[in-house]
Design goal:
mainly alpha; 256 residues; 73% helix
């Protein structure tokens, strides 16, 4: 309850009681308490706190890590903006994958981590897995094509651009990808065509005005002591629905 209402100090007080060696607590509950404590202290972007959280969680790993342990470790490492942390985060996701429990979202994170670390061949495998297995792989497809173009694999990118055009024919993602491909072809005429293509898209899709009343309502809900998830979703839906993005329905389903 105290975790849910974001009362960190009280939450930690009760978790410490559960983790007291003299407390009579089921071992699975004790492991869960360590994960809760590690998340509370380790996801604040403060390096020392993150290290303390990982040390706390390490006790769970001594008897063999579970998927939940690995996901907790990944969440803590995600808050650290260092190359080393990103590599350890990737290792945690690899272990989850080896256990057969990697979600599509986690696989996407792994692909992005590989890409940021210069491991493009490994990133490609993860992107292709997502593209082949997900019912609507638009986001993964756009990121994969972007990686192909960035790595100079233009001929490989073209058939995937055709597929993206079928899935999201009038989207900003497609417009950006098509422009990037043209720019990557190198000659000045291609670069001019890329700029013209983006200008044409933006002229056809002007940026909608932001409703400040809705933004203020979202901020008020987020700052409340015990925000309702449904209230947050309702105001978010009001905010994104008028934007006219082809992926709005998918975004809303994901948020819900």
């Amino acid at each position: 309850y105290y975790v849910h209402v974001r009362d960190k100090d009280t939450s930690l007080k009760y978790l410490e009681k559960m983790l007291n060696p003299d407390a009579v607590v089921d071992e699975q509950l004790r492991r869960s308490a360590r994960r809760r404590k590690a998340l509370l202290i380790g996801t604040t972007s403060q390096f020392q706190e993150s290290q303390r959280a990982l040390a706390e969680l390490d006790q769970n790993f001594q008897d063999g890590a579970t998927v939940d342990d690995l996901r907790t470790k990944a969440a803590i490492l995600k808050s650290q903006a260092t190359k080393g942390a990103q590599r350890e985060w990737a290792k945690a996701l690899e272990q989850i994958d080896a256990m057969g429990s990697l979600t599509a979202g986690e696989r996407f994170q792994l692909a992005q981590l590989y890409r940021m670390d210069g491991r493009w061949d490994e990133a490609k495998q993860q992107f292709l897995e997502l593209i082949d297995t997900q019912s609507n792989p638009t986001q993964y497809l756009a990121e994969y094509i972007d990686g192909l173009i960035t790595n100079g694999q233009l001929s490989d990118a073209r058939p995937f651009i055709n597929r993206l055009e079928q899935l999201a024919p009038d989207s900003m993602s497609l417009a950006l990808i098509q422009a990037k491909l043209l720019a990557a072809e190198g000659d000045e005429k291609s670069k001019e065509r890329a700029a013209d293509k983006l200008k044409a898209y933006l002229a056809k899709h002007p940026t909608p005005e932001i409703d400040r009343t809705k933004l203020q309502a979202m901020e008020k809900i987020a700052r409340s002591e015990n925000p309702s998830a449904q209230a947050i979703f309702d105001i978010f839906q009001e905010f994104v629905a008028p934007l006219g993005d082809p992926q709005t329905d998918d975004i809303l389903k994901s948020v819900q």
